[in-house]
Amino acid sequence: MASAVLLLFFWSYIKAQKFLSVILSLVGLGISIWLFSAVYDGGMLVTQSGNWSAPFGISFVADTFAVTMVLLAAIAGFAVSVFATVSMNKARLQFGFFPMLHFLIMGLQGAFLTGDIFNLYVWFEVIIISSFVLITIGGKKAQLEGAIKYVALNLLASIFFLIGIAFLYGLTGSLNMADLALKVQEIENKGLINVTASLFLVAFGIKSAVFPLYFWLPASYHTPPPAVAAIFGGLLTKVGVYAMVRTFTLIFVGDDFLSLVLSVMAALTILSGALGAMVHQHLGKIFGYLIICHIGFMMAGIGMMTELAIVGTVFYLVHDIIVKTNLFMVSGIILKINGTQNIKELGGMYKNYPLLSLLLAIPLFSLVGIPPLSGFWAKLFFIQGGLESGEYILITFIVLGSFLTLWVIAKVWVEVFWKKGVNLPKKAIGRYFHELRQREKWVLLLPIVFLSIISLYIGLGAENIISLSQRIASELMNPAAYIENVMSQNQIEL
Amino acid sequence: MELLLIFIIGLLHAAGIYMLLRRSMFKMIIGLILLGNGVNLLIFLLGRLVKGKPPVIDEASKVFTEIYADPVPQALILTAIVIGFGLQSFAIILIKRVYKVLETDDLDELNSTDEEI
User: Fold this and answer.
1) Residue A427 lies in domain
2) CATH number for the domain that contains residue B11
3) Where are the transmembrane segments (chain B) (predicted)?
4) Between residues 312 and 341 of chain A, which touch chain B (CB distance below 8 Å)?
């Protein structure tokens, strides 16, 4: 079942055509929805590849958390796929942009579904090798420099991850996550377990750009074209958060030292991301720093480790994937219209394109979390969870981070949309927005409308998402069902 | 044998980290390769070393009767080597390209991404 979703993305490898890519993303989205509804109604699905039963074979586990993430990845992948058909230039498409995009999404979905820690490593490698190609495609000077930093840090993260796996295997003799969850509990040597957990924390921390390890992100995310930045900003950092949630709820449970480290890192991540976003003038960099800031919110949820806080983290993940993908596409539209992303030079968007501005306002303001837009509910849960467990300092940082985000977004809004526009000198960025044909304009705007509707739904129909997040959180906090499902014998055959 | 491996792993890690801390891009890649090899050996060591006992079950019995060499770490290392090889070759090509475009090998000069554009 899982492989149906995965294999689908292999097909597009042969023909890299816009049309095919969009159709296949749509089919992928359809299959993800089907998988999601199947798991939501019928409970967890487990399959063992190679017909070896757990813990010996490699399991793929579709619990509610995994399929939600798969669905989100498919939505974001579909939107970016549509967006890229117009926004990318020909040379980049010829170098295999679409196949790589699909490999990336395949890797992401594999990473979400796998139930084996080494298999997770393999999927991470699939993700990073395709992201390397995506980030270097086109090869301008700044882009190559960003790519070097990105590649070096990610290679290092993989090495850390591998050391962690080596220790874990040496300690337990198992790689299956459900089996590990049982065996790690039995080990007496808590110090060594903490060392291993810290190695995983560093590896996933580099991937998801948390406080001391985030420097590669602002140096590289604004360099590739907006379509690539959208999929990176929306999904790549979140896969690190997903892996963190998985390992720290399933394998390394309930250690005070780790919770403390996570909380401190979360607070500093929020602060440094927000401050970074305040000082920069380039839209891509501002959004890059905002990613870091909001990764901090999710980390804070993991650090508190109460069920309410995990609800917040899951809700925020859902909201953030949609909104961040949308934001980078918005910055792509602004680049298309004006030829620059420097907010000091921009202006007059609202006067020239009032309807478009209103549309672009939706992702911008749902990021801040002005009720009833989507960001608000997640923060509510963080603060509730924090009050419950008495983490007042962390709450202060979350509130501070929200205000600083508000400040940054208000600044962007005033500078880009309300300020009096000046006529900008023409630059060679391909065709400008008003030079595009009517149909192409719509294709550019369609994914933004699509994602905006989804984020409006997350905000206005919050009760559905909340009940989904609560279900995921209770599954995560009580891993017994997960373990039992993986280890039991009556599973679907492929 | 274990002791020798431990020293080799330590040496590879130390050399790799030293190379990573240099300013040259090329040395950075060498550092990453050394580190990667060190980690592969580490997996090998942590999978317990057993000499001359292949994981093959006797015809007479159904299960293993004595200690055997664990094949899983070897499979892991094989996978890690293949993946590492692919990534390293990509990184080397990337560095060559960066060197051509920027005409420098010094990581400290790669700072144009930090400027306001």
Assistant:
1) 2-493
2) 1.10.287.3510
3) 6-21, 28-46, 75-95
4) 341
Query: Residue with structure tokens 């579904």?
Result: A113
B98: chain A residues, CB-CB within 8 Å: 144-145, 147-148
Question: By the 8 A CB rule, do A292 and A214 touch?
Answer: yes
How many angstroms away from the CA of A122 is the closest CA of chain B?
Answer: 8
| Domain-embedded: residue B61 | no
Report residue A116: phi and psi, to 5°: -135, 130
Q: Are B28 and B107 in contact (CB under 8 A)?
A: yes
Q: Do A155 and B91 touch (CB under 8 A)?
A: yes
Is residue B73 in a domain?
A: yes
Q: Are A109 and A74 in contact (CB under 8 A)?
A: yes
Residues from chain A contacting residue B86 (CB–CB below 8 Å): 129
Asked if the structure places residue B79 within a domain, the reply is yes
- Distance of alpha carbon A381 from alpha carbon A470, whole angstroms: 11
Distance from CA of B47 to the nearest CA of A (A): 6
Amino acid A431 reads R
Tokens of A24: 């296949």
The minimum CA-CA distance between B87 and chain A, rounded to whole Å, is: 7
Burial tier of B23 (Cβ tally within 10 Å: 0-12, 13-18, 19+) = exposed
Domain boundaries, position B31 = 2-50+68-109
DSSP 8-state secondary structure symbol assigned to residue B106: B
C-alpha torsion angle, residues B36, B41, B44, B45 (rounded to 10) = -130
Q: Are A259 and A249 in contact (CB under 8 A)?
A: no
Predicted local distance difference test score (pLDDT) of residue A433: 65
Q: Give me B56's structure tokens.
A: 């093959």
- DSSP structure class, residue B30: H
Which of A269, A128, A97, A246 minimizes the C-alpha distance to A177?
A246
Could you tell me if A145 lies within 8 Å of chain B, comparing CB atoms? Answer: yes
Q: Which residues in chain A (266-285) have CB-CB distances under 8 A to chain B?
A: 280-282
Tokens read off for A444: 């550019």
Contact A319, A366 (CB under 8 A): yes
Smallest Cα–Cα separation from A36: which of A479, A476, A468, A477? A468
Domain count, chain B: 1
C-alpha separations of A48 from A45, A211, A328, A445 in Å = 10, 37, 38, 41
| The pLDDT of residue A4 is above 50 | no
CB B18 within 8 A of CB B35: no
Q: How many domains does chain A have?
A: 1
Give the model confidence (pLDDT) of B52-91 as tens digits: 777 777 777 776 666 777 788 888 899 899 998 989 898 8
How does pLDDT run across A140-164, given as a tens digit for each residue? Answer: 777 788 888 888 888 899 999 999 9
User: Which H helix or E strand runs over A48?
Assistant: strand A45-49
Which structure tokens are listed for A158? Answer: 């993989």
d(CA A48, CA A57): 6
> Which site among B94, B95, B104 would you substitute to test the A interface, given the most A Cβ atoms closer than 10 Å to its Cβ?
B94
Is B55 contained in some domain?
no
- Which DSSP state fits A52? P
